[in-house]
Write a structure and sequence with these properties.
Length: about 230
């Protein structure tokens, strides 16, 4: 049977430390999965993490600790795997959600155009990355200059900002939406809504599937939480 760590502490509390704030479980400082000290830049974020640990009952389940997971990713993966994560994120520009439109019905195609065309226009103007649009799902090669420009916008992202961008892009399927949220052209709520144009239209036609809704809710919660986590730094 695999070892399942359980609560051993009385109090989770925030402690000022060199470089920021950490969380102590009684007198024991938290560490990341790679054994780095879990030190975050702000007391506000540290307070949210401490609150997650304070309410643990019994077995420790990191799946119920989104702020802790955000810190882990920012301090471990986004440092050790920064180049790989940035490259994977930039690749979404080659198959961006906003560029693939419905052939039918016309109502859905019109709704996609109304929702997505302004953001693609922003990409062309603000990011110097115009992208081509097609109907159907057959791959459409995008201009090399645009892909290079998008990759150049991704490269400066570090640590927590890269973690947030990666989540926004992979959840939405759109590098353009992720960059629009990261650069504050859109709020996370707006970005999420724009990524769900197809699903919203289908729900209007056929109703809501309970299992699909649970998965959607989980993705939405993550999409919105990383915006709030960044705002706390």
């Amino acid at each position: 049977m695999a070892f399942e760590p359980k609560r051993f502490w009385e109090q989770a509390h925030v402690v000022k430390s060199e470089g920021g704030y950490t969380i102590h479980l009684d007198e024991r400082p938290l560490k990341t999965p790679l054994k780095r000290p879990l030190i975050v830049p702000s007391k506000a974020l540290a307070t949210e993490i401490a609150a997650e640990w304070q309410v643990v009952e019994g077995i420790i389940d990191h799946a119920t600790m989104p702020y802790t997971q955000f810190a882990h990713a920012g301090l471990d993966q986004a440092i050790d795997e920064r180049k790989e994560i940035a490259a994977k994120t930039a690749l979404y520009g080659e198959t961006d959600l906003l560029c693939y439109r419905a052939e039918t019905p016309q109502e859905l195609a019109e709704r996609q155009a109304e929702a997505w065309d302004p953001i693609l226009q922003w990409s062309a103007e603000a990011l110097d990355a115009p992208l081509l649009v097609t109907k159907g799902i057959v791959h459409l090669a995008q201009p090399e200059g645009s892909l290079n420009a998008l990759a150049a916008h991704v490269q400066p992202f570090q640590s927590y900002q890269l973690k947030a961008l990666y989540d926004w892009v992979t959840i939405s399927g759109s590098l353009i939406l992720g960059l629009a949220v990261a650069k504050k052209r859109l709020t996370a709520a707006e970005g999420w809504a724009l990524s769900r144009v197809d699903e919203s239209w289908q729900e209007e036609q056929w109703g809501v599937d309970d299992e699909a809704q649970k998965l959607s809710d989980s993705k939405r919660d993550t999409f919105l939480l990383v915006e709030r986590a960044l705002s706390l730094i």
